[in-house]
Structure formats: structure tokens, C-alpha cells
Amino acid sequence: MKKKTFRSLIVALTLILVSLSFSAGAVAQSSGKLEPLVIQQQGSFAVGGTVISTPGTFNPNKPFEPAGQTLHGDHAYVFYQKPVNARKYPLTFLHGAGQFSKTWESTPDGREGFQNIFLRRNFSVYLLDQSRRGGAGRSTVAMNLTPNTDEQMWFQQFRLGVWPDFYPGVQFPKDEESLNQYFRQMTPNTGPFDMDVISDAIAALYARTGPGILVTHSQGGGPGWASVMKSPNIKAVVTYESGSGFPFPDNEVPAPIPNGFNKQLEAYGVPMDDFKKLTRIPIVVYYGDNIPNTRHENPALDYWYAAVQMAEKWAETVNKHGGDVTVVHLPKVGIKGNTHFPFSDLNNVEVADHLSAWLAKKGLD
Amino acid sequence: MKKKTFRSLIVALTLILVSLSFSAGAVAQSSGKLEPLVIQQQGSFAVGGTVISTPGTFNPNKPFEPAGQTLHGDHAYVFYQKPVNARKYPLTFLHGAGQFSKTWESTPDGREGFQNIFLRRNFSVYLLDQSRRGGAGRSTVAMNLTPNTDEQMWFQQFRLGVWPDFYPGVQFPKDEESLNQYFRQMTPNTGPFDMDVISDAIAALYARTGPGILVTHSQGGGPGWASVMKSPNIKAVVTYESGSGFPFPDNEVPAPIPNGFNKQLEAYGVPMDDFKKLTRIPIVVYYGDNIPNTRHENPALDYWYAAVQMAEKWAETVNKHGGDVTVVHLPKVGIKGNTHFPFSDLNNVEVADHLSAWLAKKGLD
């Protein structure tokens, strides 16, 4: 047999068995030993961004003079993996404030995050570092970085508990190393956060990948909605704990919601034609546990109370105009104890199962 | 047949065929269509770093006051992939100045970089973002970031050519998008470059992974040598275009080498006991093409002339003390046209083949 034919046969048999292995191994994650991931293609690239330049002529023998030189910045950075026999729509993941693509990789205690979980469910997975964050650090706008001690604030804002106590039943590992890893998955803005710059890059990504599903977290919610208004290739949005950046029709913007974290949680207005784009796709908005249903003296809890109020108003407004937004409060569907990071919490497979069911229900898988 | 037994059988058959597929598919890369990557495990974590804190007591209801709060910073960030049937020693990759882990991922024109190439050769692969760079951006020391136009300088320093001309025969794609991607794989320091902080993190990584091989690029060379002096688990070093940070015995430090890029290329001294650690492992130092063998009016070329002089002195010194350093000038072994990034150049499979042969020769695979 010729070497090439032999290889093709082996590859074909491998792929058949890998498929069988996936079907048979659906429960493998909970049984400890994981099956190998079979990746048809993986890689990375920059997308979007702009170029600035200094007037003048570059002198090759005086390279430290900025004249005639350029800077390519404000792009997003993307690492992607495509499994064999990928489903129709890839999942693109956008992190929240202070985070980067790591959000979706290994959990703080080293379990698999949504990157691996959804690869195993045969989705292509694109992980973004938004413009001016992480690997997409080259910014066209200056930024001063100062090392501020702020982690006890984040511990509360991300709803692990009220420092130094974890919430009873919280789905976060209690060992010291997990908290160490959790704090170290933060990385600063290297330029001002700019929803417009970020959503331009995401729209450019969708122009490249074609139709897909966008999954956002927290602060990423805002650029996510803006991206939908810029790209018809976003066929659905899944957002975890979106807290700000909700767009309303210009004449229906609700009053800011006062809260103890950022004083006023504001929405913003967009032309009706843009807003209507949000009504044409299915959207699910998830919230975790330990969010009060009245105002609260703790600024973190008061903020999440306000965020949920705003999200409910927004869902109602989109749906009133013909949209399909579902707000899921995880504790109300029996999934308890989740923090601001349900996708990396101890029960993240259960959280993923809920998402898989929603995608199936909407015909998106 | 029980479901679990059936799954085990399928998995076993899959792994056998995957192994065959790898053996049979060794030439697949050059034939266009690539075989799937079969990954036993992949994930990410932070390693090393420190914790700073502000004196006082944290008040849960006043989370914006820094008192009693911490900042975890200065760690490195690692993304790893382990293929099925991995070889004994993983390869850990450290980028150079202005770069991050992306250096080793897709090339500017979208071909596979060393991450995928060496996964296909059954090495486990660890990609680092060094402390205060990329995803490891949380720094304990302040930094002001300003968007300086400097890319024509880098075009020359990275030896693509003398702007705006590419060197004849250079192994870099000439299309506009490749250069766009290349410039966008830069990302700034989010704190001062600190060889000691970075090598502490790398030593911590090797304490976690066990014995392995370190592959460094350019500025990464310096932290690489420092890491060898801190960790007995580094069993070999491969460095591409190391330009600075060579350690010599305290009483054998050579004079700085004048050059038009950074005025003086300096080496530094370490106690003999530390230096001797560099003599106990095999080391290969690679340089690409278009490096002059005399001084040059162009600062970039003058710098690389100086860097090679220093590297040759260093290799001679390590070998004189019983070491095993090989300096490979790629053009002298028939591999022509390489830039400062041989591992992502158009001929990077050939460059990888040379490395594979060296690893085999040293019994490291």
C-alpha cells in the first residue's frame, strides 16, 4: 500500500473512533480521567485596530527618531481552536473588567474552563483579549499604570463573599492556592477602556470567521451589545453577569440606578434602527447567586442589585420591540452558590449544561 | 458490553491509531493538509510572583480604600498543552523584548509556529508570558505607557531589512497583512523589565513541571541563563538570537562592546559556583542571516554584530570551564535568509528540523 493511502486510511479510522469516543465519553469529565482533545486546527491572530504615525521621513541610520514611523495598535488578540467535526457556529468568548482570555481557560483550582468544555462539545472556540488588554496591549492612547492594592474589593465585587468570609455554599474552592490563582488572572488596561474600539475589533473578527455565537462576561457585555449592532454575523449572545453598557432606544433610556459602588449605574441611548438589531437574535443573560433583591449597605451587593434591575428593564425593552431575551437567575433554576464567574465555579459543568440546553432549544448547535 | 468498557476500548483503539497516524503523518506539514492535534491535557496557570499589601484594616463597606488590601503581581502566565504519548522533557518557550507567548503561535502569515510544530513532534509545550508582559500584566511596580511610533526601528532591529526594503531572499512574507500581523504581535511592558523577577517565576515553573528544556528568544536569553542558575530542572537551553544578558564568572567579564544601537552591549558577572551551573547542560545558540562580520553604520546591524561577538566570547568561556555550548549560524549550515525570528520565518520547519536533530544528538528527546 502506498504510504499516502495508508496514512489517509489511518486518519479516517482515527476520526471515526474519535467521534465514537466523544459520544461514548460524554460523562468522562465527571469520572476523573479526561479523553484527549482532538483539534483540527489551532492558532492566533490580531484583528481590528488602527495605525498611527508621526509625520516626517524615517532615517534608517537614526531609528530612535519617531519621524516617519508607525504604531499598529488597538487590535484585539484571538487564540482559536477548532475540533474535528466542529458544529456550525463557533463560540467567541470575551472576558470582563480586569481580565483576559484566561477567564475561559483553566479554573483557579485547575479544572477545565469553558474553553475545553465547549471544545469537548464540538464547538470551535475563539478566546479574545480585547483591545488594550493582555496580549492586545499595544494601545494608541497613553496610560499610567500604578500598583493599587484592591483585591479585597474584587473578592466582594466578584461575590466570593464579604472579606474575609466566603458566602455559605459558594461555588468557589476554599484553598489558598485557588485564591492566589484567581487574583493572578487579573491584568490591567494598557490604554483607556473604549467600547467602540473593542466592538470594532469584534466586528472585524466576525467578518473573518463568519456567523457565530458571542459569549461575554461582565464588563464585556457592553462591547458585546455594541458588536451586535455592528455585525450581522453575531447570531446569538450569551452573557454572564453583564453589569453595565446596556443600550436602549434613544427615547427610552431609563434613569440611572443609584448604588454604592459607582454611584449611578447608567444605560445609554442608540437610534432605533441600531437597537432593532438586538431584537433579531436570541439572547440569554445569566446571573449567579447571592444578589440581594433590595438595596444593600455593602457596595458590591448594592451594585449587583442595581445591575439586575437594569438587565431586567433592558430585557423587557428588547422583548417589547420583538426581541428574544431570556434572563436566567441561576438559583431560581436550582443552580446555587454561583459567583460572578459561573463558568469557572465548582459547578461549571452544570452551568455549561444549562447553556448547551439553551443553545439546543434555540437551534444554535 | 458495559458503557464504560466500551468507552475504554474505543479510547484505546483511538490512541493506537493516533500514534500510527503521527508516525505515518510526519511529512504531513509539507503536504498542505494537516493532521489533527491530539491533546491529552491543556490549560493555564500563573506561577511565581509576589504579594504587596497596604497596612491597615479592610472595611468591607468601603472597598475603595486601599488599607488592608493586597495585590498579587509579578507572576508569569503559562498556557500548556500535552500531546498523547508526550516525550520525557517538555519544551518551555520564553519570548523576547516587546513580545509575548504569541511569538510561538501562528506565524504572521498564519502558518504553524513552534507551538504546533513541536506538539506534532510529541513534545509537551509550555508558552510563557513573562512577569509584567501580556497576560502576566499585574505588576508591583508602576509604569507609564506612551504610544511611541517605533515600528520602522523594529523592522530593522528584527532584520527584515532596511526600511522600507526587505533583504533579498529574506524568509519573511512580503504581503501587507503579514507585516500588519507581525507589528501587532508586540505588547508593552506593564512594569520595568526585571531579569531577576522573571527568572524567579521560571524557576517556580520548573519546580512545578519537573525536568525540561527551556527555549528562549532574544531578550529572553538573559532571564533564561538566570533561570538555569536558579533551577536544576532545566536540562538544556535553546536560544534564538540571544542579544544581551550573558553571565560570566566575576573575574572574567569582558569589556562592553560598543555599538550604534544601545551604545555599549554589556555582560555581567556572577560567582563561579553559579556560573558552573551553565556548564552542566547542553546549550545551543542560534543566529539567523544578514548579520555583518564587522561594524556597520546601521545601528541594528551594528548591534547584531556586537551581540554575536559577545555570544561567541560567552560560548568560549562556558566551554573553557567544561561546558557544552554550540553556536549555530544558520547561513553557515545552509539555512539562509532568516530574520531575528527564525522559528516563525517562512522556513521555520527547516529551522525546527535542525533543532530536532540537535535534541536527538544530545539525547534530549
TrEMBL record, chains A, B:
CDD domains: Esterase_713_like-3. One of its GO terms (molecular function) is hydrolase activity. Residues 1-24 form the signal peptide. InterPro entries: AB_hydrolase_fold, Carboxylesterase_BioH. Transmembrane segments: none annotated. It comes from the Bacteria. Keywords: Hydrolase, Signal. The keyword Lyase does not apply. PANTHER family: HYDROLASE ALPHA/BETA FOLD FAMILY, PEROXISOMAL MEMBRANE PROTEIN LPX1. This is Alpha/beta fold hydrolase. The lineage of its organism: Bacteria, Pseudomonadati, Thermodesulfobacteriota, Desulfobacteria, Desulfobacterales.
